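Example record

Each entry pairs one chain with its bound ligand, nicotinamide-adenine-dinucleotide.
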Amino acid sequence: MVEKLYHFVGGARVEGKSGRFAPIFTPMTGEISAEVPLASTAELAGAVANARAAQPGWAATNPQKRARVLMKFLELLQRDYEKLALKLALEHGKTLPDARGDIQRGLEVVEFAIGIPHLLKGEYTEGAGPGIDMYSMRQPLGVVAGITPFNFPAMIPMWKFAPAIACGNAFILKPSERDPSVPLMLAELMYEAGLPKGILNVVNGDKEVVDAILDHPDIKAIGFVGSTPIGEYIYTRGTANGKRVQAFGGAKNHALIMPDADMDQVVDALIGAGYGSAGERCMAISVAVPVGEKTADELVSRLAPRVRALKVGPSTDEKADYGPVVTRQHLDKVKSYVDIGVKEGAELVVDGREMRLQGYENGFYMGGVLFDRVTPDMRIYKEEIFGPVLSIVRAPDYEAALALPNEHEYGNGVAIFTRDGDTARDFAARVDVGMVGINVPIPVPLAYYTFGGWKRSGFGDLNQHGPDSVRFYTRTKTVTERWPSGIRSGASFVIPTMG
Ligand code: NAD
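Structure tokens for the complex follow.
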């Protein structure tokens, strides 16, 4: 039975009216489980009108009361945790334990957003001039939007809407059309938690609705996460229309392995960070850079059996290392990169292309792939594959290894494995990448720090969550005030100097 999904506008489920739909798959079986309506420009305009009408009331609600809705939402997330995780795993493909992590890392940003009243406080200077006081306040932007990717259908929507709503904005969420069910469930929970109608709307769709968001004059800011070409497009068109835009893109995350690294720790770290979630994480390690031939030989000999032993299973298997990838189309793309790597002359140490899972023959599964002797001119090094494929690039020394992430066009995450504090410190200072791990393979900053890549992994100037999210979703108004009893100096024709 194919379920028909909907939009969520003005606090209610709304049927799609465009007549266009996209299929939603269950990657572990390959079956179609639902269809999602793809909104038209007119449907988006309806949602924006709704949000615009509701927003002033929400902005005028005191910040603590707004935060209390998020507190209640957290309780409801706990109540429905397993239901959400199961839906997420079935629609995305990641395993159930990993789906729980997806919810958890989003929920932590909701926890952060509960403290946002503290960050909304302005500045105040008493006596900035004779009888003059000056203060600033942070005000919401109005209606703002988030456009999110398929790979974290719970976490990234929450990264976006929780801070925006806590700051007093109304939010239009355009989730990935590949797994929109969890975002729809989250919106319903926000209303159950007491959010006024119209403050969080979910409008499903593809390029048509995204373009409508980019062009709508009442949408003041857009937070995007997805691939780099789309992110660049969103940033260019959105800012040309006068909007605030932050757009986070793709990645090619390197891990440097120094000769003094703890090899047991390295192998565990690379297996988890390279193959977890079938490599469909923007912070996955996709390039390992052992320094020196001895380190490289040891790394390959220890990694290869572990990659061959990876347990690929259906999303509902709690013991599987990872599940299927998101669609057949994506599976074909990842496999074609393996073909390209072989043609380019990389050494295919472990080949996962032919993996089949008994009982799940139509699922989108792929075994782990390990390439050795990859070089920087190869496409498999330059491009994001977003699958369970780890490439080893051998470097003769530390400087050559450091040059690799520094010269790569992406700059999302990076890690170094070493026991030497001087090397680690030098690396953290000189690497041209936004998020750095020292003996930590996936250095995703916690909710009260900020998340953002450099170079072509991020467009815009503020990061996601943490204090930057408050800066992104508010604007500063500065007031200079004086009262009739203050000093009267007559008309002045000179710029005020507070003298
Ligand atoms: P995607 O770029 O295909 O889609 C992202 C969003 O853009 C979706 O909502 C989609 O509907 C929309 N979109 C797709 N094509 C469009 C078009 N032509 N015009 C307008 N809108 C369009 O990305 P994805 O495949 O869903 O997600 C995977 C990508 O996201 C990877 O590149 C990954 O590295 C990246 N990612 C980045 C971060 C980060 O914070 N830097 C986090 C997670 C994922």
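Residues 147-152, 174, 176-177, 206-207, 210, 225-227, 230, 248-251, 282, 384, 386, 412, 453, 457 surround nicotinamide-adenine-dinucleotide (CB under 6 Å).
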